Amino acid sequence: MPDEHIPGKLIGAIVAVGSLAFIGILTETVMTVLFPQLMREFGIDTATVQWITTIYLLVVASTMPLSSYLNRKFRHRQLFVAAVALAVLGSLVMIFGHAFPVILVARVIQGIGSGVATPLMINIILEQAPRTKVGRLMGVGSLVITVAPAIGPTVGGAISSILPWRAIFVIVIPVILLISLPVGLTCIEQRRPTEEAHLNPLQFVAIVLSLCGLVMFLNQTGVAISAAVAGGNAVSSAIVAAISLVVGLGSLAFFGWSSHRSFSPLIRLGWLRDPMVLLHLIAYMILPIVGIGFGYVITNLAQLSLGTSAFVAGALVLPGALVGAFFAPAGGMLYDRFGAVRPILGAFCAAICGPILLLAFSMRLTPVTLAGFYFIFGLGYSLGLSNIMTNALKHIDPVFMPDGNAVFNTGLQFGGAAGTALFSTILSMAQSGAGEEGSETFRHATAVGGGWTFATMIAIVAVAICCLAAAFRIGSKRR
């Protein structure tokens, strides 16, 4: 049938826009594997260095609520060029910045670029893909993004072995300007007319405050607990954590109330009244806590507990993440053929076996078993994740598709930011008072912290599976 054909320009547009998100995630995971080196270079601790990752994910999550407004207000090509400019500028600041606060500023700039690019790619797929190929193309979009975490730690480890870590940003600029930019300008088409949308600044500030407040709550709670365990002063951190929680929840409540009363809300939220869609969103938001947080846990556990080099630590993530990433389109094909229930639940029932095995062997892990058990999780995670969003958006009125895309992508990035903050906090708690890095007591404490993180991962994936099962039960009753 003619409408089943996937235009070549659509594939080119997906690759061009997705490559910007790819580069952002790549540099994020490159930095993750370099945390021990960065801690020594800048003279900072574990709880501080993780902000290189957390602030990037927070900015991405804070930018994505604007995607519905941007999609209605501006042409796809204009948004693409803006994302390219931000990615290049952020890379230049990373190259020439030699103070930790400057590095954080660079990650903010890059995060804004990725926050524009990722939902733009999804909107292009949802607007222009043939209906029977949506699952497959969402899988392709997921592939473009998820390959980055697969190769990032390995690239970071390899670069740190032979070159200064800033070399990665020297490399990505020509890739953006010579490949992504010309392909995007050639292939990106505009099918949907723009509108006279209006930005509600109060709602935007509210969603940014809510995201930052909740992640800051996780971070400062961990700092307070670590200080208390070490016998230090935990009062100031506990106060900051409590204030952050109040600000985060209060801002989120204000955003919901304001959106309901506003004539032109930043994001239209009425579709979230459907419990089936809401349960999909909860699962899609909490699973990246594990999926993105895994990269941090494995690379740091390998170096700080097992004593591997940065290169080996990065290589441990590669098999599971890379194979899992390339199976993302296969997951979309299974969705197109068999529907949602079996491909999604089967994938995550397989994925949860990874952290279960890691917990069981947490005190006697080797680099091989660490990589092998993560392989199991990565395969199942990549097979199922993009299908959750695809299936949820299928049950939303097409008019609200940009709003659903914005909320789901924001939830994805917030989950990633929360995961990095949560697991770095758990490891910091376990390491507190355990002596100097490299000592036997420090390695043992890190291994114990690894066991705590794996137990937390199991609980999170189990909750997601329960949410999805409940959503499918609701859908079955409706049919």
List keywords for this structure.
mainly alpha; 0% strand
Describe this structure in words.
- By secondary structure, this protein is an all-alpha fold.
- It contains 19 helices and no strands.
- The protein has helices at about 10-35, 35-40, 45-50, 50-65, 65-75, 75-95, 100-130, 135-160, 165-185, 200-230, 235-260, 275-305, 310-325, 330-340, 340-350, 355-360, 365-395, 400-430, 440-479.
- Helix 6 (about 75-95) runs antiparallel to helix 9 (about 165-185), helix 12 runs parallel beside helix 18 and helix 16 (about 355-360) packs antiparallel against helix 17 (about 365-395).
- It is globular and about 60 Å long.
- The protein starts with 7 loop residues before the first helix and ends with a helix.
- The model has no long low-confidence stretch (mean pLDDT about 80).
Briefly characterize the structure:
The chain contains 19 helices and no strands. It has about 475 residues and is mainly α.
